Structures are given as C-alpha cells and as structure tokens.
C-alpha cells in the first residue's frame, strides 16, 4: 500500500484516484475547487467531470495543498499540461524528499517547448520523475473497464517496480525506460486527433480519416524520433495505441473538438482539448528539427483560422506525389 497524492480533481485525476483506491492505496486528491472536493468527500461523485459515476467512499479530496501533499510517497500531476509548472512550484514546500513524481498530463509546454517531465524537473529537480500515458478514457477507468497504459521512468527497474505497485483491478501498467518517447506520443496524438476530427466534421469520409491517421502517425514517428523518442515506443500503447483510441472515439475531447471545427461550430464552450495548446509549439519544434509535418501544420492553420477545413483538404491532397517511405529508399 502506498500513500498517493493526485494533483487535479478533474476527470483523469478522479478516475486514477478511484482505480488506486480500489487497489488498496491511500489516496488523496488535491483540487483547486473546494466545492468539487466537498462533493467527492460527501456525495462520492464528481458530476462536472464524470457524471453519475460512483466514487469510493474512502477517497478523500482537499483544496488544501499542504494537506494533500504532505507524507505522499507518490505524487501524480493530473492538471492540464499548461498548468503543470505552476502546480509543481506550489507543492515544493510540502513534498517529502523521497517522493516519486509522475507526469500524467499530455502536452508540450507552449512557452518553453518542454515535455511534462522537464517542466516538473525544472521546479523540483531532486526527485525521481516518471510518466504515465496511454490509451485510457477516464470514463472507462472510473467504471472499472480494462485499461492498459505505459509507466516510464529513466531506469527500467524503477519503472517495473512502480508499474507493479500501481497495477491491479482493471488497470494494467507496462514499464518503459523511454520517458521522452512515452510523453511525445501522448502529446502529438492529441493534435492528430483534432486533424482527424476536422476531417470527420467536414464529412470527408472514412477513407480520408484512415489516410490521415496513417500519415499523421508517420509524422508523429518522424518528429518523435528527432525529439529523442525510440521508434518502438511510438508503436506502443502511449503512441500508436493512444492515437488509435483518440482518433476513433467521440469520447475523445480532442477528436470532438476537431469534429466541431470541421462542422464550423462554435468551440468556445467545449471541454479541455490539449492538442489545441500543443499544436503551435509542436509545429515550431518540427520546424527547428527540419521535419516535414503537413498534417500537423495544416491542423494548426485551421485552428488559428488561417485556413478552412475545405482549404486544408485541398492543400493536403495537392501536395507533390512522393514515395510512401522515402527513408527506406536510400
Ligand atoms: N480525461 C481523460 O480521459 C484523460 C486520460 C488520460 C490523460 N488525460 C490527461 O490528463 C490531463 C488532465 O485531463 P482531465 O481529463 O483530468 O481534464 P479535466 O478538464 O477533466 O480536469 C482538469 C482539472 O484541472 C483543474 N485545473 C484546470 N486548470 C488548472 C490550473 N491552472 N491549476 C490547477 N488545476 C487546474 C480543473 O479545475 C480540473 O479539476 C490532460 O493533460 C489530459 O490529456 C486525460
Ligand atoms: O479526451 P482526450 O482527447 O483528452 O483523450 C483522453 C486520453 O488522452 C485518451 O487516452
């Protein structure tokens, strides 16, 4: 049994907390909204994020950061990716010296270009840091449906031991030592899901969606490898696995966001879609590495309003014809 603190009382933080309580861990959630914490403690629900799903009675939530973090052996960062740095800075005074920190948000910091583990390390440099990512909808996990994700730490043995500790019930963790690869896959698949959603919303057909997923995956691998990922990791749960899930289910907020954009609907009231916040920094990083990423670039232009979905379709379809795997011909 471990003492676990979850930072973020939204859909994913609450679902992970529910799974870990079910495994016998002592879990405390920190949420910035006192009313949400009160609802989790008293009514055992988090309706704004998880509807009527029933949460464990011994799951505790608090808006008091010191209370949530003090004494925790494992701390998971589950607030939106762009807020991870601020959350990390705010826990420093309360954190046990040997606490292990796990990044669970999927996104690249759009100010610095850092991955989530780097954002955390910049604030809390003396801690072991890992990453948890893979195909997993909070709505599935909170209902106890089978889910497999990847847990990466810089040392394989440490990853293995933590994956063992946090696996159980319907959640199965696979261990990896490719901490960069796991988070790059998780960040870029959100952008691809928006692109495929735009295609769905624009009524471009199932063949076009399959083509975009495949060519989007080729980009994800090209850019991911240039950024330090291992290609095999990008073929795993946190890469291809999560790309498939997020590009195919309307439960995905990124996919749903893309669909709304493709239909020309108002997106201002939609839920968190991390790809919206990662797309422009991901395109900047691709430019810096000299990596061609037409799907991601076109998605960025549609999201910024520089191009319509229809113009994006024309732009992608009129690119020069080329080899499908140019790198294999050399
Ligand atoms: N929902 C899922 O199925 C799922 C699955 C895997 C990974 N994730 C990832 O987990 C991260 C969180 O997603 P989520 O689904 O829980 O989002 P959410 O929108 O459901 O919840 C986000 C939570 O963070 C809080 N929050 C927002 N801004 C904050 C800030 N500046 N400081 C502190 N707290 C803040 C919100 O109040 C809310 O409690 C995302 O990066 C997402 O990609 C989500
Ligand atoms: O709802 P999304 O698009 O943020 O996707 C949730 C998870 O990342 C799926 O693995």
UniProtKB/TrEMBL annotation:
Top EC group: oxidoreductase
Keywords assigned: Cytoplasm, Lipid biosynthesis, Lipid metabolism, NAD, NADP, Nucleotide-binding, Oxidoreductase, Phospholipid biosynthesis, Phospholipid metabolism
Residues reported to bind sn-glycerol 3-phosphate: 106, 134, 136, 189, 242, 252-254
Predominant location: cytoplasm
Compartments where found: Cytoplasm
Active site, UniProt feature: 189
Pathway: Membrane lipid metabolism; glycerophospholipid metabolism
InterPro entries to which the protein is assigned, alphabetical: 6-PGluconate_DH-like_C_sf, 6PGD_dom2, G3P_DH_NAD-dep, G3P_DH_NAD-dep_C, G3P_DH_NAD-dep_N, NAD(P)-bd_dom_sf
Record Pfam families: NAD_Gly3P_dh_C, NAD_Gly3P_dh_N
Coiled coil among keywords: no
Organism superkingdom: Bacteria
Binding site for NADPH: 12, 32, 49, 106, 138, 253, 272, 274
All residue ranges annotated as the Glycerol-3-phosphate dehydrogenase NAD-dependent N-terminal domain in the record: 4-158
EC number(s) given by UniProt: 1.1.1.94
The UniProt record lists the keyword rRNA-binding: no
Functional note: Catalyzes the reduction of the glycolytic intermediate dihydroxyacetone phosphate (DHAP) to sn-glycerol 3-phosphate (G3P), the key precursor for phospholipid synthesis.
Family to which the UniProt record says this protein belongs: Belongs to the NAD-dependent glycerol-3-phosphate dehydrogenase family.
PANTHER family named among the record's database cross-references: GLYCEROL-3-PHOSPHATE DEHYDROGENASE, GLYCEROL-3-PHOSPHATE DEHYDROGENASE [NAD(+)] 2, CHLOROPLASTIC
Protein name per the record: Glycerol-3-phosphate dehydrogenase [NAD(P)+]
The species this protein was found in: Hoeflea ulvae
Annotated gene: gpsA
């Amino acid at each position: 049994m471990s003492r676990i603190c979850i930072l973020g009382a939204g859909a994913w933080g609450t679902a992970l907390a529910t799974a870990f309580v079910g495994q016998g861990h002592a879990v405390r959630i920190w949420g910035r909204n006192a009313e949400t914490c009160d609802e989790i403690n008293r009514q055992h629900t988090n309706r704004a994020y998880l509807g009527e799903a029933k949460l464990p009675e011994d799951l505790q939530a608090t808006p008091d950061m010191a209370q949530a973090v003090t004494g925790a052996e494992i701390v998971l960062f589950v607030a939106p990716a762009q807020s991870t740095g601020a959350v990390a800075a705010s826990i420093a005074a309360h954190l046990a010296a040997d606490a292990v920190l796990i990044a669970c948000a999927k996104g690249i910091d759009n100010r610095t270009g850092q991955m989530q583990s780097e954002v955390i390390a910049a604030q809390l440099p003396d801690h072991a840091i890992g990453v948890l990512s893979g195909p997993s909808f909070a709505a599935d996990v909170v209902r106890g449906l089978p889910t497999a994700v990847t847990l990466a730490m810089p040392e394989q043995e440490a990853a293995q031991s933590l994956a063992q500790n946090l696996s159980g019930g319907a959640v199965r963790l696979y261990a990896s030592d490719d901490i960069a690869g796991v988070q790059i896959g998780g960040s870029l698949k959100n952008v691809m899901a928006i692109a495929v959603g735009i295609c769905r919303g624009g009524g471009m057909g199932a063949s076009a969606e399959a083509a975009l997923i495949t060519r989007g995956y080729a980009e994800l691998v090209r850019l991911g490898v240039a950024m330090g990922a291992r290609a095999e990791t990008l073929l795993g749960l946190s890469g291809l696995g999560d790309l498939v899930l997020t590009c195919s289910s309307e439960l995905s907020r990124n996919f749903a966001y893309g669909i709304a954009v493709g239909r020309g609907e108002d997106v201002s009231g939609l839920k968190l879609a991390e790809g919206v916040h990662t797309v422009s920094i991901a395109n900047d990083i691709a430019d810096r590495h000299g990596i061609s990423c037409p799907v991601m670039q076109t998605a960025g232009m549609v999201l910024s309003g520089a191009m319509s979905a229809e113009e994006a379709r024309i732009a992608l379809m009129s690119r020069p014809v080329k080899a499908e795997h140019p790198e294999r011909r050399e």
